[in-house]
Amino acid sequence: MSKRLSLASCCFFTALLCLASTPLPELFQKAKQQFNQAAYSEALKTLDEMARRSADPENEKYRTGMTPALAFYRAACLAALGRSAEARAEFETYLGFQPNAQLDPTVYPAKVVAALEDARRDLEKKNERSIADEYKAFHYAGGQSEADEALADDPVRDLMTPEETRAFAQLTNPVSRGEFVTKFWASRDPKFREEFERRVAFADTHFSQDDVRGSLTDRGVVFVLLGPPTYVGQQPIRTGEDTSDPSGMRRYTRNDVVAVQKTLGSSPTTNVTIDNMTGPANTLPDSATRSREVWHYRKELLPKNLPYQEVDFEFITRDGYGTNVLQRDAVSLNALDAARKALQSPVHNGSSQ
């Protein structure tokens, strides 16, 4: 039995296929058959003809709906022909409509599957942003109070040694606490204090969550201890990446597809039905509130005594789990602990390294 090809993840295009009175569905079926027969160049010509006809006034209502379908099959044909750069560009257009689309490697050629994943990575790379640039442009006027009685509940608590923490806890009046704060900062380099307070102010401005000040959130703590990361990457948590998801998260199993084949036999209607069941869109979409943010630090930004060449801090946002929750793996915790100990030095020179 020949491999079944998937509809290009656009359920609205199904209605178009059912309108046999128009030439566009016929052309689309032709392009798919050519792809199935590995006639990729011929399929591209058919898809180009579809694109030209979609510009006709009578096809205006189909134009938007055709965009992801055309992009998907053009990308698939180009990838199969070895034109990977062109394929990635088309797949990027397609992923704009279906960001969580996944291909079954038993259905599509390896080059097509690889091109889609390359396009996804390219898009993720484009979404990277530089907190370092934002921090460089951040205006901080300064002015933290000398007599901060809540010192132990402030981000500065990460600068206090265990001995200083115990000593501060024993103080019971504002005067003694004020004197402690004055001595505490006097033992540190003034330039370091200015940098620390600037980091806190930046974190409070950019990373606040609900009623929690930004410098006390997971992202804020990492920023205050290590400064701005080399770069930040953001992406959705796709189906199958979350271990709490039901296995596969697919609308239809292979048994469902076989049952349709046995029930309906071989016919155009069966082909359309199976296309919809096995296509890239048969994976349940992720919620917009499921995302992963990764802060990447290269070695030059890490404490000198760490053996790592780089460290990634991963923050997860998910309903029922939290917002930008740091994933506390051994590497990230070791990096934070090393940064904390480096900053606790009374003669610190202003660098976490």
Features:
353 residues, Serine Threonine Protein Phosphatase 5, Tetratricopeptide repeat, four-stranded antiparallel sheet, disordered N terminus
Mean pLDDT: 77
Order of helices and strands: HHHHHHHHHHHEHHEEEH
Oligomer: single chain
Helix-strand category: alpha+beta
Q: State the low-pLDDT regions, or none.
A: 1-22, 243-251, 284-288
Count of alpha/pi helices? 14
What spatial form do the alpha-carbon principal axes imply? elongated
> What level of helicity do the residues show?
40-55%
> Rg, please?
28 Å
Number of strands: 4
| Biggest pleated sheet | 4 strands, antiparallel
Q: Strand order, main sheet: write it out.
A: 1-2-3-4
Distance between the termini: 63 Å
Overall number of domains: 2
β-strand amount: 5-15%
In short:
50% of the residues lie in helices and 8% in strands. By secondary structure, the protein is α+β, with helices and mostly antiparallel strands.
